Amino acid sequence: MFNMFFLIFNQLMKMLLIMLLAFVCYKLKIVSQEGNKSISNLLLMIVNPCIIIRAYQVDYDAHLVKGLLISFGLAFAAHIIAIVIVRLLVPAKNNPDYFLDRFGAIYSNCGFIGIPLVYSVLGNEGVFYLTAYMATFNLFFWTHGLSLMENGFSLKQLKEGLLSPMIVSTLAAICLFFARLHIPSTILDSISYVADTNTPLAMMVAGFSVAQADLRKVFTNLRLYWVSFLKLLIVPMAVTLFLSLARIDYTLAYTTLIAAACPSSAAMTMMAIRYNKNYKYTSEIFSFTTMLSIVTIPIVTFFAGFLIK
Fold first, then answer.
1. How much is the CA Rg of the chain, to the nearest whole Å?
2. Would 243 be classed as within a structural domain?
3. How many CB atoms lie within 10 A of CB 215?
4. Where are the alpha helices (DSSP H) in 28-97?
5. Model confidence over 15-48: pLDDT tens digits?
6. pLDDT one-digit tens code per residue, 132-183
7. Is residue 309 part of a domain?
8. Helix (H, G, I), strand (E, B) or coil at 184
9. Contact indicator for 286, 205 with CB cutoff of 8 Å
10. DSSP single-letter state for residue 233
11. Is residue 25 situated within a structural domain?
12. Which of 82, 121, 175, 278 has an alpha carbon within 20 to 30 A of 29's alpha carbon?
């Protein structure tokens, strides 16, 4: 219990220092918004797929297959739990941006933040299972999430979401895993080098985003506190309770919990821009939950230690 707490807290402190460095770099204009966009695209299109490919380059094991299937079920359950809770606790009345509050409280930054955290405490096996959460995230994001943003969704947009780099790389990696095909060591080593840049690049993107936010406005917006409370504490603790009652294996349980406890998704702002919604507010949700998660994730995992054995 305490070991997991200190592992996660230590990793988050390292990530915070990188985020602070990125914050300073953006304020000093060492990095521009164009640079931020380029790094985000690099993470999404290249680095994260490399992580997925590496995670599946292990020997075929029936235990891993069973764990992966369970992980898909847990990820589905975690999203349903979040949707139900947020639907009940974020009313639409007198809140023109209620759908953004719901979006921010449901969908987590399970890729950028989740991958380095899970890898640091659970290793490659944890990332292997995390891919199930990320694939499920994409499915919900482009169906339920899109319906929140547009009050409806189209098959065209769903197709676009399912063809995202994360989904394609996950499917490719799974095919290699089940076909028991191993990438030559020289190529795999190169993929690993790229994958290892995920943590610094992801935290730099987070730091750049925080640097662009009006922090005075962020800290005085009471709605942000409520959304953050739901996203970072209520939903993860509800997921913890579910995992405890279901008596889920330690590694599978903590992989799902860490993914659910991550701050609001960075992709939310991209979607808000695309559909002409209040993207500045979504950026504030992302920035505020990212800052608070440095404290809340260790708290959630600490209390989870009493329930998950």
1. 18
2. yes
3. 13
4. 33-42, 48-55, 62-89
5. 889 989 999 999 999 988 788 878 878 887 888 8
6. 998 888 888 888 888 888 776 667 766 766 777 777 888 898 899 989 999 9
7. no
8. coil
9. no
10. I
11. yes
12. 278
- Overall number of domains in the chain: 1
Q: Helices 62-89 and 114-140 sit at what angle, rounded to 10 degrees?
A: 70
Amino acid identity of 130? L
Q: What is the pLDDT of residue 71?
A: 95
Q: How many CA atoms lie within 13 A of 161 on its CB side?
A: 22
Asked whether residue 44 is domain-assigned, the answer is yes
The domain spanning residue 254 has which CATH number? 1.20.1530.20
Task: Pick the closest to residue 70 from 265, 231, 206, 248 (CA basis).
Answer: 248
Give me the domain span that covers residue 137: 2-304
Q: What is the C-alpha to C-alpha distance for residues 155 and 131, in angstroms, rounded to an integer?
A: 23
- Count of residues making up the chain: 309
Question: Which distant-in-sequence residues (6+ apart) come within 8 Å of 22 by Cβ?
Answer: 31, 203, 204, 205, 206, 207, 208, 211
How many Å apart are CA 81 and CA 169, to the nearest integer?
27
Find out whether 239 and 260 touch, Cβ atoms under 8 Å: yes
pLDDT one-digit tens code per residue, 194-227: 988 888 888 888 888 788 888 888 888 899 999 9
Nearest by Cα to 270 from 36, 24, 21, 46: 36
Predicted TM-score (pTM) of the model is: 0.85
Give how far Cα 204 sits from Cα of 11, 14, 16, 66, 270, Å.
Answer: 15, 12, 10, 35, 17
Type of residue numbered 79? H
Q: What are phi and psi of 96, to 5 degrees?
A: -65, -20
- Coil, strand, or helix at residue 36? helix
